[in-house]
Fold these 4 entries.
Entry 1:
Amino acid sequence: MGYEIGSGVMVGIPGQTYDDLAADIALFRELDLDMIGVGPFIPIRRRPWGVQPERSLRPPVSRSPPTS
């Protein structure tokens, strides 16, 4: 029929781990998808997921100045 099948995933959802993301990617491969979209989770403060928990895919923010 000429159809292509795709899916996608948001990265950075509160509580999401690298294992979760790896499982999603493995499922995409198993499903033999033609297209995969990846987008960032952007929190909105006044929504239930607006505050990031301690466990997140985002790298920790360094508050110390860089060393030369």
Entry 2:
Amino acid sequence: MPDHPKVLARLLWSLPAGGVLAVQMPDNTNESALMLMEKVAASAGITRANMARNDLPRPEDYSDLLRPLCSNVDIWHICYNHLIENHEGVVERFKGSGLRPFFAPLDVAMRETFIANYTDEIRRAYPARSNGKVMLKFPRLFILAVR
């Protein structure tokens, strides 16, 4: 969402005293899985249908914005490590989100080629663990603000 920090401030401001704004956002734009989407697209001369998600502001920036508007704000960053059955499962996980802008301008054959190339890149970047599964790091930012 463009300019989402201002939207968060507006939402917080619209709450009654004691109201709570709870937010969680993926903070994975610098993770290999997302950067490899760009790499595969660039190598095939593919332009995505819309702009990629920008990096999130720093937690300090959210704090500076929201703290004056509320009685309490907690911000934390956590990284989930998802064990995925296989590399194809990693790709499947992103088909409904990060890959969509890349898929939009492609026909079926081009999409299949993109997926095959992306899966190969994922295989190189995320080695299978001792149990044969793939560990996908997924950082998230959480904000809990009380008006």
Entry 3:
Amino acid sequence: MRKIAVLLKDNVENLGKKGEVVQISDGYARNYIVRKGFGVILDEKSKKSYDEKIAIERKKLEKSEQRATELKNDLEANLKLVFTERAGQEGKLFGAITSERILTEITKLRTIPGLDKKKLVLEEPIKTLGQHHVGLKLYHGVTANISIEVEELKE
């Protein structure tokens, strides 16, 4: 039984993950893994092609992370949301400021691609006057901390 090296193009259960090089029997490699498109037999050409693809993907990810970090710095420095609401005597709001309202205000001021309410880190709606902070997930590991000021409505 001859073993050959195979570069996996997809995750294969009980064998390996995408991008790994595994040693498997010749028949299993040719008759199943390669035929189904889960991997390619490792030679200089396939290894070089795979390395080039990985380098391109890595550059794209680095560029996306860099853009997200720049946007985070910009949002933290230049974006401050102010809400004016009716409040009771102890500074409690009659209503609440929800993630949908915060998202609406952000989209009025900035165009952020892929922004939805799931990206806002808000444990519960804001129900008190004063300064609050809300997280906005921009990328894996990049979260902007947005400042929100809630002021009392003077009637």
Entry 4:
Amino acid sequence: MEAPAPIAPAEIDLPTADLDRILGHAGKANGGVYQFAIPRAEKIIEHGVEIPPAMGMAMPINFQPTGNGRAAITGDFVMIASEVNPVIRALRAGGITVTALHSHMLEEQPRLFFMHFWANDDANKLATALRSALDRMHTKK
């Protein structure tokens, strides 16, 4: 019996090298969506235990192609209180809609706020606006 042929990843109709360069992180294709997971620089602790980026402490940013170099984007910024208003301003200035602001935990240190966003526009333009927001945060470089 022959092993099945590996399935080739779906092509992403976006300038992914540009998105990586603009955001300063490498994304990956997953089911037709180009995804980023950008961690905060500091450790997040709750009840004396570190919560790793893979447990929802990294910022997911997703680009889904919508044609002609455009993308629908969505994701979640993980911020401390002093970052919230600067990030909102950067996103709005770049044409990105903030859809929710809330917390997920009760006693984490530092205290975190989660901001969801959405837009559909030129992918590089949106990446530039997202980078502007990330520049107002304490993320791993």
